[in-house]
Give the backbone structure.
Amino acid sequence: MKLIVIIFISTAFSGYFTDNFLKYSTAYVSYNVNSPKYQEDRFSIVGGLASGQLEVERTERQLEGDYKMSFGLRKIGRFKYESKKGVKSAGNGGDWYSGSESNPNQSATFGPVNGWEYLIKWTKGRQWGEEYLNQESWIRYTGNWFVAKGGFTQIGLEDVEYAHADLRLKKNISGIDLSFGFKHRQHPVYGFPATVLDTTWYKGSWWDFAEDAFGWDDNMWFVEGAIAAGEGDVAFENMQIYAFDPITGEIITIDDGPFYNNNGEFWGYDWYWADENGVVLAQTDREFFLYHFPALLEEYMDDLKNDLGYQRETSIVIGADFYHYTQNWWVHAWGNWLPYHYGHDKYSYHNANHYLEHEEKGMPDHMFMYMESMWMAWDDYDFGAIIGIKLQTNLGVFAEGRYLNYWERPAYDFKVGLNYQFVKFFKVF
């Protein structure tokens, strides 16, 4: 994104910007809203714990519609198999740009023409009650023997986010464009488990960690008669738990149960937990540990990853692109392989990949040793293809899709289909 801004600013005051850079580009803004997925009203229990007669309260759901708002600026060469879009072409066999386009060939290494191409695409929306943000911005210059590209990608629902800069040499051999160069990427912390990023929450007492990390407060409560006189200190007596056998009616002892103290023993005390606002939300350690601690820990780890910022890697990239078009069939395919990577930062993915080796050896997470900046081998890759075949004048089949797997975080979309156009009907006598 920064690269795009710099280029735009540096060329904004020259004729080159308007005559060559912006010429034939298209800007668009769009907004659409759809009715929400229907959901029944909610019913909640608001009383009746002691009496056994439940008090039920009905809450009407405030259903919010699905929406999508987009804006963008684009200048991308059109392959012959693509339909024309934009204001000039709309109504003449073309279509409008709305931000809903998902053209797989936008991820191809090369466009159909040399020179500047760029895409700025921003989409925010809500789908089935879940908010998301997608961004894709890139700028590319294709020359006779090289290609340079920089951009930013964020796919909200798949949780993939990275900035990149790509510089490669290219050579056409037998109709295939081969490329070789370097790709620099910056991304959030990926690949590290919570037990490696922070060992304090499981190597020390979890209740002290919960107080410090989450801001919750635990306070002791106890039953009357549980306190016994100790020598200088207050002690608590072990209180055996009993129950009635539902079949025999006899009193039985409980030797295992949902209590903090071991073996089902109850010592006459426990802790209740209040959140950062002083609201008591758990009456026992067990309740807090099972129903509140996991979600709080996940939020804590997300904040920790965000605080660590973007991590940097520089990778060797090898690519291959193939394009062939006729009136009856066409193929456009591409792929990129990133086999070797230099991790610049402590939490770059070279250390996450090193952790996998640590895990395979069965070593505990708290003993994991981070490696210095270095080259390391693992496979990142992306590929895509668009295939169209006209079986006859009014019948055709197509397939298109793309697949990206960076840092073991796949994102993909594929579709296949058949098109048939009815040209005339015959009367049967």
About this structure: The mean pLDDT is 84.
